[in-house]
Amino acid sequence: MSHSHLAIRHLVKKLEMSQTRRSLKPQLPAWLTQFVDEMAERFEPFHGIARVGFECQHTESGWDLALFLGENEQIGGPDDGQMTPVNFRFDLKNLIQHFDSIESLHWNVFPNSHVCYDQMADLSVLSINGTVKTHSLRLQIHAGPPDSIGPGTRQFPDGRVELV
Question: Which domain holds residue 128?
């Protein structure tokens, strides 16, 4: 299953951002932007297309990077406004080679938690703490987006899909 369309769509969306929007966000270092792009290549939706989203923050201990696929929003029809998560696989092969060193690697899963079912991003997360290009980085790959994030794609009744 080819997933090169994800990276292309990710890059196209980056190019589509307005100059105003870019100036509002703090500029990420080039090494981190490259890392995000490399990690976006590893997402592969089981059906259709998807948009990789991320949140990044510089902390006292280094960089925190969270990656996820945005949800799909139905536009029009009987399911109008319904948000659905995108099922995907994430290619772990050679993932650690993108790090200079690894301090920890964890997979957190809560399959029996009645508390977390409304928060898909909390059900499963892969966390890697390490060093990338001499910078401390905590990478988290989430099963779904945070609640505060809007849709990644919109699907219309005619089958057309639009990146948000």
Answer: 4-163
